Please model this.
Amino acid sequence: MTDAASTIETARLRLEPLAAPHLAGYTALIAQPDVHRYLSRADDIAADPAGQAARIVAVSSEQWATRGYGPFAIFEKGGTALIGRGGLFWIEALQDVEINYMFDPTVWGRGYATEVAAEFLAIGFGRHGLRRMVATTNPANSASALVLRKVGMRPAGSKELGGGRIVDLHEIFREAWMSARSTP
Model:
């Protein structure tokens, strides 16, 4: 069951806290090679999409319960098909809150990633008063790095996440986000 108080609408999308009812749609989403190819756990997802989806849904429930934020299932307004997943994640390896997103290839190119990334920053800085947020990208994923630049995030070096997984790190501080919002 979706918590209506935690459901958010953007201009074109509806975001519901990711939970057990979304598992089948989320599994179908991440099972697609184009969706998971740049993810840090791409090999694990390819080998067991259902298991990895169940793991993230469990992490989602825990983060929503303990932190008051977490990943969302993403739908087009008025739609019933899950088209993406994203949100705020506490990442233990980074000791930071990460924004992230992924979408079904059928909706790529519509600007949804930029729309949700901006919303996630507003949630983190506005609703939760975070000081800094980060995002990680596969070094080969220039499209996602561009989205992050559009919402004001800046490159912050590379990070090894264990198991040989190297990611590019992006960051934004609350003050920079607030300053950009007040500039016409």
Notes: The CA atoms of residues 12 and 162 lie 37 Å apart.
